Amino acid sequence: MSKIALIAAVAEKGAIGRDQQLLCHLPNDLKHFKTLTSGHTVVMGRKTFESLPNGALPNRKNIVLTHNTALSWPNVTVVHTLDEIPIQDTTEDEIFIMGGATLYNETIKIADTLYITHIHHTFDDADTFFPTINPSEWEIANSQEMPADEKHAYPYTFVTYTRRRIENREPSDK
């Protein structure tokens, strides 16, 4: 069974989008996204898919979740419920959930890993948000800080979170 990973660029206050678009352009984040997801399945909601400038992402199996049964696109598998996503019927080690907010909210409870690019800036006009990352459920496995530069208007940090495993412990005999 594949692990479920959520991948997102998240600004301060959990902001992820505005007017169905990303909040800013970070070329290194796009490269990071491509490196992590190439050769894997990516799952997205209809609005996220429609926001992609060139349709289906190359070198990935694209799955779009929509309630509209009449929709279809080239190089895309359309599903209508989370249960239709082939999590158990694949040899892939990881399947990536890439948005939007509704899909993140529905899948964070079953995710194993979060690949978050934390953008260190507040976008007051954001209208779409990532669910809260609860530190009692998630721990940082890896973190890499990146400064602002001529191609990146804001500093950001690549963070990989893994779900904390709660060990079943026998009560002590005190």
UniProtKB/TrEMBL annotation:
Any Gene Ontology CC annotation: cytosol
* UniProt keyword annotations, A-Z: NADP, One-carbon metabolism, Oxidoreductase
Pfam families found in the cross-reference section? DHFR_1
Entry's EC annotation: 1.5.1.3
Its UniProt entry gives the catalysed reaction(s) as: (6S)-5,6,7,8-tetrahydrofolate + NADP(+) = 7,8-dihydrofolate + NADPH + H(+)
What pathway does the UniProt record associate with this protein?
Cofactor biosynthesis; tetrahydrofolate biosynthesis; 5,6,7,8-tetrahydrofolate from 7,8-dihydrofolate: step 1/1
What range(s) does the DHFR domain occupy?
3-163
- An annotated GO BP: dihydrofolate metabolic process
Which GO terms of the molecular function aspect are on file? dihydrofolate reductase activity; NADP+ binding
Q: Give a yes or no for keyword Iron in this entry.
A: no
Signal peptide range equals: none
What family name appears in the similarity comment? Belongs to the dihydrofolate reductase family.
- PANTHER family membership: DIHYDROFOLATE REDUCTASE
Biological role stated in the UniProt entry: Key enzyme in folate metabolism. Catalyzes an essential reaction for de novo glycine and purine synthesis, and for DNA precursor synthesis.
- The entry's protein name is Dihydrofolate reductase
User: From which source organism is this entry?
Assistant: Barnesiella intestinihominis YIT 11860
